[in-house]
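haha ok so turns out i had the wrong file open the whole time. this is the CORRECT one, sorry everyone. sequence first:
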Amino acid sequence: MIRVGGDAAPARPGVAEAGPAPAVRRLRSSRWRDPRLAVGVVLVAASVVVGARVLAAADDTVAVWSLRGDVPAGSQLTSGDVTISRVRFEDAADAGRYFDGDAEIPAGLVVDHDLVAGELLARSALVEPVSRATSDVPVSLADAVYPADLEVGDRVDVWVTPTDEASRRRESSLVFHDVPVLQAEVADAALSGATAVVTVGLDSDQAASLDKDLAVIGAGSVTMIRVGG
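then structure:
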């Protein structure tokens, strides 16, 4: 029998009534315009730039030759005399004044002046050797004028001033120019009261007029002047 109107039909036994539907949450997309994200990107970019600059500065050095120990003038350098040092130059042009550490030392050149340990090897420090001395000439320094600290390796000019009455009006003459000191015992001679003798080396050109030069030295007073010092 069908009942029209009135109360709703009773629920069927064993069937649960459906409750209200749960609310659905939609996933929201990332907010790329978040200020915190922008700050983070700026910080990361800044750290990358700073790191790159630090690494570039750390590698901004040049390998050049430097001296392991002291080297006297006139010596010929070998690979054992030098070592590689890394140097940062303020001006790139300055690096060209020194020997590249990756290159070999030029053969046949000699040291132009005394070098000290740790010094960078400048290109100007190596020169072509002069004519080798062929004559060792002892010069007596009795009543002479010379540097008290004269020593082997120095280069000197030897001047002579006439001592006889007839020649006093004559000017002093340069007998030997820029000759190396091969032996010097001036300090020992000064202590013992003996006459100091300095041996100088002459090349073939200088030795060509040795007979005349010795005559001039024997007739005058010697003045020995250190070249470059």
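The chain has a mean pLDDT of 76.
again sry for the mixup
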